[in-house]
Design a protein that fits this description.
The structure is a single chain. The protein is built from 17 helices and 2 strands. It has 485 residues and is mainly alpha-helical. It is elongated, with a radius of gyration of 24 Å. The two termini are 17 Å apart.
Length: 485
């Protein structure tokens, strides 16, 4: 097999000489447009995660209707004539973003005009535009009544341990309290990966009186205080780098989409593969918010934030905690929802799981950035391991003074399960290497691929870059070795 691979690769050198340049990247362009829309719109993270999922599912299903290499997420519209996938992606994105953020239509119209200026007018472009709009409409219709519009107020209950609004809350009411009931994308229900309560305790009394809880409280009390004597400058930088809570930033899902873009560009993904990667990431983050908010609001453990717990430690009946009625977190605000589990950590775990599965490694070198206006450290920050990066994202919330470590730990666990589940269930490959369509890849397919490849047949263009080269050969061989069986 290795000799065959080397022989085919050598033969591909002749074919690769005919390579053409890669066209403008429609997926990256629309990601930037989406991030700007979030910065302008603001608000809590769950609606942002919902709209990015709508957006990237529509973009992927539009491209996949043209190429058909993967299972559709919502719909696959039959294509029988030459159709521009790039035009389809742009039209789907344009229609979806106007639906999501109608007051920003001018931004989206300009982005659409920019994309279309790079696609020469043709019947293929016109068919792509029609296709993209049809796909976007199908996604919108499929998600009608998903429960995201449930604004039933959260019935706050006072008492030790229970979440209450604080004087530093960003909003004046608990945000998106019913989001755990929203219809998931890949999960069966919001509680599918629901964690146990902190430490496995089953009541407020047992939790608050435990040494486990006292250790967690004293940790954030020391290192998350505004005037902390133990937090280092690097830890302060980490706190602000991952924050992205305030309006004007792309929010936590947006920062992870920026990282996704960096990974995709660094690995030279074509726009079709990028569309799939972004769809996987956004589905995972959409489900992560549902799972995280299920844990926050729909269990008995709607845990108070550190600022409340520390100021009212004299009510927790724990001799290992001391009240400090003047304590303030590093952040001049607190997120307006219960602490357990951390939304940041859940997003981060889901995101890392998708990248880890997609690139088949936990070791990924990334130079990444932040939108947070409080961050003053060096940029970019460099990471080499996805798990470490996600864990740091979770730990940053303790440095910021708005979470406990068990919030971050369980958020990462839940997010990882959510991400793995999404990768296993969404946009799975339909084996393009199965040339004789008998359900597996064997010697017959190898013979047919070889004949078609050297005849210049575009169905051998597995990476959809318009060029037959050694990458397509290697893609076929990966499938032959078991990827499609």
């Amino acid at each position: 097999m290795f000799r065959l691979r080397n022989a085919l690769a050598a033969a591909a050198v002749c074919v690769a000489g005919a390579a053409t340049s890669v066209q403008a990247d429609v997926v990256t362009d629309w990601n930037q447009t989406y991030l700007e829309a979030v910065r302008v719109n603001g608000g809590p993270p769950c609606p942002a995660s919902r709209w990015c999922t709508h957006l990237y599912v529509a973009m992927f299903d539009a491209a996949n209707s043209v190429y058909g290499d993967y299972e559709p997420i919502v719909t696959k519209i039959p294509v029988t004539q030459p159709t521009s996938a790039r035009a389809a992606i742009a039209a789907a994105a344009h229609r979806m973003l106007i639906h999501a953020y109608p007051t920003q239509q001018a931004l989206f119209d300009q982005a659409y005009a920019n994309t279309m200026s790079n696609i020469p007018p043709s019947m293929a472009r016109a068919r792509g535009i029609k296709l993209g709009r049809q796909v976007a409409d199908a996604v919108i219709a499929a998600r009608q009544g998903d429960g995201s519009d449930d604004v039933t107020p959260y019935p706050q209950q006072n008492g030790p341990g229970r979440y209450v609004l604080t004087e530093l809350d960003i909003f004046n009411s608990p945000a998106t309290p019913n989001w755990g009931k929203v219809k998931p994308w890949a999960m069966t229900k919001g509680s599918q990966f629901r964690p146990t309560a902190p430490g496995g305790f089953k009541s407020w009394v047992r939790l608050l009186e435990s040494q486990y809880y006292a250790d967690q409280l004293n940790d954030v009390k020391a290192i998350g205080a505004r005037n902390s004597a133990t937090r280092t400058q690097d830890q302060t930088d980490i706190a602000w780098f991952w924050a992205n809570d305030v309006d004007g930033t792309s929010k936590p899902p947006g920062q992870l989409l920026q990282i996704t873009q960096t990974a995709a560009v660094d690995h030279g993904l074509d726009f079709y593969k990028k569309a799939r990667l972004f769809a996987l990431v956004s589905v995972a983050m959409g489900d992560a918010c549902i799972a995280g908010w299920d844990a926050k609001y729909l269990t008995w453990c709607d845990l108070w934030r550190p600022i409340t717990a520390i100021r009212q430690a004299d009510t927790d009946n724990n001799p290992a905690t001391d009240a400090d009625p003047t304590w303030e977190p590093l952040a001049p605000w607190t997120p307006p929802f219960p602490a357990y589990i951390s939304g940041h950590a859940t997003f981060a775990g889901a995101h890392a799981a998708i990248l880890r599965n997609y690139f088949r490694t936990d070791n990924l070198a990334l130079d990444i950035y932040t939108d947070d206006p409080h961050y003053t450290g060096p940029l970019p920050r460099h990471y080499t391991n996805l798990t470490d990066m996600a864990r740091e994202n979770g730990r940053s919330r303790i440095y910021l003074g708005v979470h406990y470590q068990f919030d971050a730990d369980q958020g990462f666990v839940v997010g990882t399960a959510v991400g793995n589940n999404a990768f296993d269930k969404i946009a799975r490959p339909v084996c393009s290497a199965d040339f004789d369509k008998n359900g597996f890849v064997d010697a017959s397919d190898m013979s047919r691929f070889s004949d078609a490849f050297f005849a210049g047949d575009p169905k051998c263009d597995f990476d959809k870059n318009g060029v037959l080269d050694n990458n397509d050969l290697f893609d076929f061989l990966d499938a032959y070795n078991g990827g499609c069986n």
